[in-house]
Design brief:
This protein is α+β, with helices and mostly antiparallel strands and about 425 residues long. It folds into 2 domains: about 5-215, Rhopdopsin 7-helix transmembrane proteins (Up-down Bundle), CATH 1.20.1070; about 225-415, Alpha-Beta Plaits (2-Layer Sandwich). Helices cover about 60% and strands about 10% of the residues. It is built from 13 helices and 8 strands. The strands form 2 sheets. The chain has a 6-stranded mixed beta sheet with strand order 2-3-1-6-7-8. A two-stranded antiparallel ribbon has the order 4-5. Helix 8 (about 155-175) packs antiparallel against helix 9 (about 185-215). It is elongated and about 75 Å long. The relative contact order is 0.08. The model is unreliable at about 215-225 and about 410-428 (pLDDT under 50).
Length: about 425
Amino acid sequence: MSALELMIWSMAVGAIGAVVAVGLTDLVQVRSPGAAQGLVYHLGTLLFVLLLGGVLREVAPALASPALHVAQVLIGPLCSALGNFWVRGWLSAHQRDRFMSVSLQVSALVTPVLGLACLALPTGQQLPAAAALCLTNTVLVFWLGLRGWLLGDRLALGIAMGCLLMLPALVGLYALAMGLPGIGAGLQALFALCAALCAAVIGMMLWQRNRHERRVRPEEATPSQLDPVTKLYSGISLVKKLIKAQRRRRRTRRDGAVLAVLVFDTERVLAQAGSSGLNEMFIHLATRVQRQVGVVNPVGRYYDRCFITLVETIHSPAWLRTLGLRVASSLRRPIEVNGPDGQRVELRADIGVGVVHLTSDPADVEDILHDAQRMAEAARRTRSRTAMLDPQTGELVPVEHANLGPRRPGHAAQVPHVVRPHPRPGRA
């Protein structure tokens, strides 16, 4: 390796090291699992470039050649597997898209096994096999990132662009490791630049996604778009997002859902905990809703006692039953807030959850929101506090009684009566 080539790859290593330093600072400040995962991912990327770019061989020539070769073969599949496992979480694939979720999960399990299998090949074929494995995996994640973007996740496009930059970087790094001729300083500079930009783009996307998850705050929103109390989307912003989602749904033909959460008996909470305690309760409820539906699905405060969440895609209609029950169960758990005298007060929110199944058929946004609130109002009279329209009968029923497909044993007997539709609830 010439001095110029060493300088090129040292600069790439330095740029990736800067991304690692930012990730480490973020981890020290917030100590979240997402920040830890991002840091380990970028450390793996740094080690990958060090091993295959030749920098490590130049700065530590005493390293045993056989051990270095084994590390070069294994590092790519290992990083790919860890990346796929965490990308599945970052894209909330388990909530958004079954195919995306299964593809990332299977590839995360299979890739390291195939990486180990590469060592069973003749020595001259090991690195080419590992390169083919990593390139195939990167193309897969690129495609799934685009798929997530088409399903409404803006940050998924950043992941896809990072993978697109990764492809030439992989080609160049494996070519260098295999000692292929004809790779001059100009090409190496291009490969190194792609590697550094890839780390920077993916690092930015992960930081934004982790920031969103920590703060329960939409990453693209401006302060004017946010509810001042919960820091979720405001009513106007929610309506705009729902309109865009409905347009997207006609193109993607994917089912989704809208959930409305109504909070009742706010006067009782106000008497117990005061206005600050009531607002604190709303913040806790908002956080719980966001955690249950995932950070990729926007949640907002439609008006003072009504929360609305848009679930862009669902696995199946039957999954709505699980989602509705899970949200209601989470919101009914005790909440501790500060009372007027500074003492902690335990509250239980009186809530109802309305679930609307969205299909590719055109539907007016105002009607969707009206129906969701109507169902949330009716849900207050059910044991599960969750209601939706039965797709078979068209009646408004407890969600566990809706004919949505297979259900867990025991759900059928929880609520003995059918809830009938009733007029639209008034706004507080």
